[in-house]
Design a protein that fits this description.
Length: 177
């Protein structure tokens, strides 16, 4: 990662702490509600988000997403500034967080609901949090506490799927619930 990117991600993370975090993930929105996809690099985050955006979903993020509490206590997904720069899309807006989906590639489609403990562990283990190595110890603890709160408050799933699978119906139902 370039030093300029590291500085930007560190600044964004510090700007939203202790009531937000910057995640290495993608996100789509529909009717003001968003889902965040998490996976290691090459895990299909951008692919699934772009495929859903070609249907009737709106792309919020394809690589990094800010998840933060607003002053009204609503947790929202906010696109990082880099998406606007790379796509030229001007009307990117925040959306209310509904769920997290950890992606896994596989031949058989499976959906598994996670406990908040495992979701928190998995987000940390798969390095889904941007800039953590560049933060001070106290800031890292704030990130962990915020993640714990997020995964307690919002459902998390593992979606194992192949590129031949169309997960749009599941995502649509999840966003409408």
């Amino acid at each position: 990662m370039k030093e300029e990117q590291r500085f930007l991600f560190r600044a964004q993370t510090r700007a939203v702490l202790p009531r937000g975090v910057v995640l290495h993930g993608s996100s789509v929105e529909q009717h003001g509600n968003a889902v965040v996809f998490l996976a290691p690099s090459g895990g299909g985050k951008s692919t699934i988000a772009i495929n859903l955006a070609q249907k009737d979903f709106f792309l919020l993020a394809d690589d990094t997403i800010i998840v933060a509490d607003g002053s009204d206590e609503i947790t929202r997904c906010l696109p990082c500034g880099t998406l606007k720069l790379t796509t030229g899309i001007d009307n990117i807006r925040p959306a209310n967080l509904k769920a997290f989906i950890f992606l896994e590639k596989g031949d058989r489609t499976a959906l598994v609901k996670l406990t908040w403990e495992y979701a928190t562990y998995r987000a940390i283990r798969t390095e889904s949090i941007i800039a953590v190595p560049d933060l001070h110890v106290k800031e890292r603890e704030q990130v962990r506490l915020y993640l714990k709160r997020l995964f307690k408050a919002f459902p998390s799933f593992i979606l194992r799927y192949s590129l031949r699978t169309d997960p749009s119906e599941f995502i649509r139902e999840l966003l409408q619930s």
